[in-house]
Write a structure and sequence with these properties.
Helix 1 packs antiparallel against helix 2. It contains three helices and five strands; from the N terminus they run H-E-H-H-E-E-E-E. It is rod-shaped, with a radius of gyration of 35 Å. It is an alpha+beta fold and 166 residues long. It has a five-stranded antiparallel β-sheet with strand order 1-5-4-3-2, covered by helices on one side.
Length: 166
């Protein structure tokens, strides 16, 4: 009889142990799931930071390529006014530097190749020189940018000047 009792206790214990094992397994899975969620959140955060850095670098490259496109288009302009040797290129500049653009973005857009001739609260006059005057191929680009009180671009007045027409 003792043997039967032992077996019954063992079967009873097995069912208790089985339930306990399932609960322990669930408890062991919970920290693993929490760890995976935390690690994936860190990975997403790192990806976002890396993405921001890449976008910032791409924006800088885009600005420089847009600046080069603008300069190429401006310097391809044919100067038709023989007496003044000037051509209005405001429409070309406004395609690349839009109204409403904040001043700090424009400062980032223009490169060190530009000379700043005037820098006041409401006006920025910049100059870009291409070629040499003594060879007859000198071109000067003058861009006047006008800003509102908030520092956003209102308009521009830009012209291309041909110097030393030999």
């Amino acid at each position: 009889m003792l043997n039967n009792k032992k077996i019954r206790m063992t079967n009873k214990n097995r069912s208790l142990y089985g339930g306990l094992i399932i609960q322990l397994r669930n408890l062991a899975v919970l920290p693993i799931v929490i760890s995976l969620v935390f690690l994936s959140a860190c990975k997403v955060s790192n990806h976002e930071k890396h993405s921001e850095i890449q976008q910032s670098a791409l924006k800088g490259q885009r600005d420089m390529s847009n600046l080069n496109l603008m300069l190429n288009e401006v310097f391809k302009t044919h100067i038709t006014d023989i007496s003044s040797q000037r051509a209005d290129v405001s429409h070309i500049v406004s395609q690349y530097i839009h109204s409403g653009t904040p001043r700090h973005e424009i400062n980032n857009f223009i490169s060190n190749d530009f000379d700043i001739l005037e820098n006041s609260n409401n006006k920025l006059l910049i100059h870009y020189k291409k070629g040499e005057g003594n060879l007859g191929n000198r071109r000067d680009l003058y861009i006047s940018l006008f800003f509102d009180r908030n520092g956003n671009l209102l308009s521009n007045s830009s012209y291309l000047d041909k110097s030393n027409n030999l």
